Each structure stands twice: as C-alpha cells, then as structure tokens.
Automatic annotation (TrEMBL):
Protein's name according to its UniProt entry: N-acyl homoserine lactonase
Originating organism: Planktotalea frisia
Keyword Metal-binding attached: yes
Its EC number(s): 3.1.1.81
Record keywords, A-Z: Hydrolase, Metal-binding, Zinc
Classification via InterPro entries: MBL_superfamily_lactonases (IPR051013), Metallo-B-lactamas (IPR001279), RibonucZ/Hydroxyglut_hydro (IPR036866)
SUPFAM superfamilies on file: Metallo-hydrolase/oxidoreductase
GO molecular function: acyl-L-homoserine-lactone lactonohydrolase activity; metal ion binding
Gene3D superfamilies: Ribonuclease Z/Hydroxyacylglutathione hydrolase-like
Alphabetical list of SMART domains matching this protein: Lactamase_B
Every Metallo-beta-lactamase domain range: 56-261
Record flagged with keyword Nucleotidyltransferase: no
Family: Belongs to the metallo-beta-lactamase superfamily.
Length: 282
C-alpha cells in the first residue's frame, strides 16, 4: 500500500518507469537551463544514458470502505501508438501484477476514473481478446470527464477508438462533470488546460485529504516553475492557472499529493515558497 487517507487505502498500480523524452522537448519554452533546474530539484530525474526525463506511468487504486476505484488506466497492451515506439503494441505484465499485488482482480473494480482521455491514461480500459477490444473491467462503470469525451469523441483518433469507444458501446461509461462525487470519499476537481475536461481527484476521509494530480503537473520541478508549459498541454495558459490553483490549495490544506508522473514514490506535500512552491517528499 502506498498510503492511507483516513479510511481510504491508496495502492500504486505501476505500469512502467522508463525514460520518456528530453526536458528540452517536454518544456520547450522553459529556457536553456531546464535540464539543470530539473536535476537540481529532482536528483536522478533524467536517465544518465539517454538524457531523457524518466516518467513513471501509473494509476492509483483507491480502496474505500464501499468501492474499488481505479484512477487512470495507463498505456495498456497491444495499443496502436506508432508515434511512441515504447508504447506501441506493448506486451507488459507489470500493470496486472500490480493490481494483483494490491489484492484486486479485474472483476472487483467498481469504477474506472479517467482523469483525461490521453493514451497513457486510458489504455487498460480495454484489452484485445480474439481480435476485439473489450472492457478489461467487466463490472466497472467508466467515468469520462464530460468536456474531454465531448472533444475526443469528435476528434476521434486510434486511442479513442481502441480504449474508449468499446466501453461506451458496452454501456459501461458515464460522462461526469466537476464536483462529481464517487461515493462518500472521492470527488473531481476541475483543472483544465492539459485537456479541455481535465480533472484531478480529491480524496477526503476522517479529516485527511489527498489530491491526485494526474497531468496537471509532470515533475515536482514544476512546483518552483508552475509557469512552464508542458509540450502536451492543449491550452498552456489555462494549464498554468489550473496548476497554480491546485498547488495553492494543496499547500493551504496540507494535502498529501500523489503525482501521477512524479519520480517514484510520487508522494509528498506542497509548501508555498515566494511566488511558487516547493516539494516535501514523504
Ligand atoms: Zn500522462
């Protein structure tokens, strides 16, 4: 178990922890020192051989007293992602082993919550069985942020067709908007910018609080530089505003912060510092 937030157990469901792209590619407007700044804040953040930022791809399994909720479904197996060779037609076993290590089977999961509909957050929504994409979690309702589903269903690419459409067609999806409560312990916070309907996830129980950032941030170095635009933020300015609000709230409320792509173990707290923030690893 990664941590306990009141009565809610949080388990890491790690799929991979590999070099992704260089800091210069990922933060193209952050200036020539971006690599040094990241390395100063996060020692070991970049792979010594390739120079690329090491980016975990993981979901979080929340065991509340009432439900099992998977937040984000990683890249998945057999998916068509030619633009990302490491993600293309993967045959990985770590995601499913992590789920088993958390004491869960695919039948046990009640909800799959997609923070947004990008490739590395929806993959295990479905599996390829006998040439057909079928929902991986047969008893789950898949929660899709409304504005993301609206956008990506109209601009449907392969990721949507392989990982979202099959759960919609199976009648297992539900569009959700901000503020939606998933049972008594989990709710969605609007943090648009990375995608139009992007949501972060708030866990509250017995006076304790935690927030799952998803892709509102990609490295804890962004706490010192919330103004950095990430290459894949669809609306950079809106993402900066959402990031500042999320970090401000996390520091004021002393929330545990679970960073979906932060260096492992991806958990800590945020403190306000000057006009920005700093990271306190757990
Ligand atoms: Zn991501």
């Amino acid at each position: 178990m990664l941590c306990r937030i009141g009565d809610v157990e949080v388990w890491r469901i790690l799929e991979s922890n590999d070099p992704f792209k260089t800091p210069e590619e990922l933060f193209p407007e952050a200036g020539p020192d971006v690599r040094d700044i990241i390395q100063a804040h996060v020692p070991g953040a970049c792979c010594a051989q390739s120079g690329k930022l090491i980016l975990p791809v993981q979901g979080f399994l929340l065991k509340t007293p009432d439900h099992l909720i998977l937040v984000d479904a990683c890249v998945g197996n057999d998916k068509t992602v030619p633009s990302m060779p490491e993600w293309h037609q993967r045959k990985g076993t770590r995601f499913m082993s992590s789920l088993a290590a958390a004491g869960a089977t695919v039948d046990d999961v009640n909800y799959v919550l997609c923070t947004h509909l990008h490739t590395d957050h929806i993959g295990w929504n479905t599996q390829l069985i006998d040439g057909r994409w079928v929902p991986t979690f047969p008893n789950a309702t898949y929660m899709l942020p409304e504005a993301d589903d609206e956008f990506f269903s109209k601009h449907a690419g392969t990721a949507y067709e392989e990982s979202v459409l099959p759960v919609v067609e199976a009648g297992q999806s539900e569009r959700v908007s901000t503020g939606h409560m998933l049972g008594d312990y989990v709710s969605l916070i609007a943090t648009p910018g990375h995608t139009p309907g992007y949501v972060s996830v708030l866990i509250k129980s017995s006076g304790a609080e935690a927030v799952i950032t998803g892709d509102a941030l990609h490295t804890t170095a962004q706490l010192a530089h919330p103004e950095w635009h990430f290459k894949y933020d669809m609306d950079g300015a809106q993402a900066v505003a959402s990031r500042r609000t999320l970090l401000g709230e996390a520091s004021e409320r002393n929330q545990r912060v679970l960073g979906s792509h932060f260096q492992l173990p991806s958990i800590g707290r945020v403190r306000a510092k000057g006009d920005a923030f700093e990271w306190d690893a757990d």
